[in-house]
Amino acid sequence: MGPVAEISQPERVAIIGAGVIGAAWAARWILCGSDALVYDPGPETERIVTEVAENARHSWERMGLAPVREGSLTITKSIEEATDEVSLIQESVPESVNLKKQVLEQIEKSAPESALIASSTSGLLPSELQEEMRCPERFLVGHPFNPVYLLPMVEVVGGKRTSADSVSSAIQLYETAGMKPLEVRVEIDAFIADRLLEAVWREALWLVNDGVATTEEIDDAIRFGFGLRWAQMGLFENYRIAGGEGGMKHFIQQFGPSLDWPWSKLTNTPDLSDQLVERISSQSDRQSGHLTVRELERIRDNNLVDILLALEGNSWGAGETVSGLRDKLRGSAIPQEK
Amino acid sequence: MGPVAEISQPERVAIIGAGVIGAAWAARWILCGSDALVYDPGPETERIVTEVAENARHSWERMGLAPVREGSLTITKSIEEATDEVSLIQESVPESVNLKKQVLEQIEKSAPESALIASSTSGLLPSELQEEMRCPERFLVGHPFNPVYLLPMVEVVGGKRTSADSVSSAIQLYETAGMKPLEVRVEIDAFIADRLLEAVWREALWLVNDGVATTEEIDDAIRFGFGLRWAQMGLFENYRIAGGEGGMKHFIQQFGPSLDWPWSKLTNTPDLSDQLVERISSQSDRQSGHLTVRELERIRDNNLVDILLALEGNSWGAGETVSGLRDKLRGSAIPQEK
Q1: Residue A21: which domain range?
Q2: I need a surface site. Which of A85, B157, B285, B324 has the fewest CB within 10 A?
Q3: Residue after which a domain boundary falls, among A163, A183, A203
């Protein structure tokens, strides 16, 4: 591939592997107006793809995102047919290195030379997957999150032999699908998001294993509490606020030492050196130093309120707690008026 | 304390320690109509409490939660004054066992005999904190989440000497404040939510330490991706959906083995015995077996859509990505109409 000019919305994309992830990729692309050519050897492909597209359409309608012209959705009979004249090939077959390598080999046989090839793997290294490819420079990982037609995040990870142009093209292509690509600059197993998810998952398994909490109690601990914060600000930004006017440095100084307490099952921690503390607080300053803690608090609270109202509208989770409070406050009007 | 009848909204509560957490407790109680008596030896107490209450009022107005009659907010000069005729005393002083024990000793000197005493500690064990108390049976942990006036979660944890009545009363009291109490049945360090938070925090520190990602990239990986899921369903329920029609058992069988891959820095994992797999899937069935995966998907997607719209209304995070997509789809109408 030569140097890349501005990338426009792809006319045709190939979706190889159509489980939950592949089918949802197809749905996102057709709703954005691209044609999707899908290949999966499974007997249920048509049903799965159709059902997922239906869910996606329902959601986009609810968001008021009416596609100007929905792209066509074609279930093909081979990888060769699916990759015909496409500019992006998204591989989403099961997480097996060997299977993925075989599929990539087949993709390369028929893919147009100019097409990017991306894998949806949630943790396998692109350097390994591209080892035997003929044109490894156009291969990378584009790791999305379920449901792909709604969550904007896609981690873009190049391997040792991926060209910088391919990474940049992939980012632009995914942006045309209304996504938020995050370039993972250092190639590590499980990338960024799944390392965080896995850490929580392990700890949660211990809690269930040890009989401390049930799956429902753990889910409740998340969705009535910090999960509401994370939908909008993530980890560090919330802790920046928790540090109050002292900011991130104050927070780490307060909270950091407790990391060495024998709390969680997994207790290996990085040394909180001055250098690491400095790195975290200066990164946090670059991220949101333009806002005061008061301003951040107000933004957080406004977002929380609107998320709670959204959930209340659906009579779900923390929204139901708000409903209960609303009823209570209304109800308590009666004795007051006596 | 005798057996507990139905608990009604407390007329007066004492807030001992008025940092971010204590001040927000006071705000929640006064907005619910209870009077709050606050004590903190710091010079800035009045300012902090007033500012936090102002933030809380703003949020409740935005939620359309108008208090029928706002409770009074009194900054007192001593613990004795603050605990006068209250039915709940909420201790929120810094996380030091010795400091908390000293404060609890003082609280016991003046607290009405019928009052419950709760600590906001995010990880210290109630059994340890109550060791030297005269009436340990009425002491427990009520661990809230920042911002306390918006997040419904409060973990209720009794110690070895806490009476069952006290736990039950605390749950009912917190419910009168519009909260979602979660009884932590097994007393462990850091309870439930903070063990999960700490696991993520450690992994995130490694990512920053190793130069893999910045604080902003980590926050983005969360808030544009799985954070949006967690605001409404937590961990297991989302994985139940990911398991598709095969459910939770299928998910664990697929995802479980990768826990033994050397992905995250902290690799000690519980043995995925048949017994543990069975426990998780049967708990998950009890939690949401009354809904099909299709129904769960639809609920999840409707919630996600409304959370995304809420964030779009505030021009924030993943909501901005949706705005961009909306503009793009509108813009692309022009060439189509030519």
Answers
A1: 12-183
A2: A85
A3: A183
